Amino acid sequence: MKQLLFSFLAMSSALFGTFIVLKFSEWARKNSILLIGFAAGVMLSIAFVHLLPESVEHNPNAIIYAFVGFLFMFVIQHFIFFHPCHDDHCHVHLGTLSTFGLSLHSFFDGIVISIGFGANAYIGLMTTIAIMLHKLPDGVTITGILMHSNKSIKQIICYSLTVAIFTPVGTLVGLFFSNQIAHLIGSFLAFTAGTFIYLSAADLIPETHKASNKKAGLCLLLGVIIVSFLGHIAH
Predict the structure, then answer these.
(1) Is 82 helix (H, G, I), strand (E, B) or coil?
(2) What span, in angstroms and rounded, lies between the C-alpha atoms of 185 and 41?
(3) Selection from 70, 53, 17, 52 nearest residue 199 by Cα
(4) In Å, how far are 11, 95, 126 from 132, measured between CA atoms?
(5) Above 70 in pLDDT, residue 81?
(6) Are 207 and 94 in contact (CB under 8 A)?
(7) Is 208:222 a contact under the CB 8 Å cutoff?
(8) In a 3-state reduction of DSSP, which class is residue 144?
(9) Against a cut of 0.70, is the pTM above it?
(10) In the chain, what is the straight-line distance between the N-terminal and C-terminal CA atoms, in Å?
(11) Tens digits of per-residue pLDDT, 178-193?
């Protein structure tokens, strides 16, 4: 059951990201738009630099599933949340959609950890290290988005814990259904990439456009650079 141990380590990395933002919560609330820009960069970088290339290695047709993931989030927003917000101060759906997308990502991370250890211990360890490295900015991302959505500290902790706990949940699913889902991992990763692209392009980046603080754009680029750099280290 070492897979579960390592998945909890990955989970703790995400929660540490949440702790960092909450530690400086006063600054974070005043500058939440900077965290939104950073979140957009993190999600775009994870989607295009990590998830899509990895998914194509497993499934040459993975790009179709990315498109499905993109459309899926569009349907969720327009038919479950009814419509995107047009009021500059309306952030109700932003935190919920982002929590959903990042929880999905965490779930598939857990499955990847399980499959990695199923191959051999070395691949499993390297996979976990790679996931832990991007989990830290994931924790910063969800916490920053929730702060921008004016969630309370208690709500932020609950939402962040929800996102993080899906990693060991995914590992458990991977342990019990490894033979059935191993060949689907490329499709899962691509679908998640599509949800991330939608969240970044449709929700997070438009928020930065509303802001008078142009540093939000620089924070987007910073998010891209950090995740790309961490991915380079991990590989």
Answers:
(1) coil
(2) 24
(3) 70
(4) 8, 23, 10
(5) no
(6) yes
(7) no
(8) helix
(9) yes
(10) 25
(11) 777 778 888 888 998 8
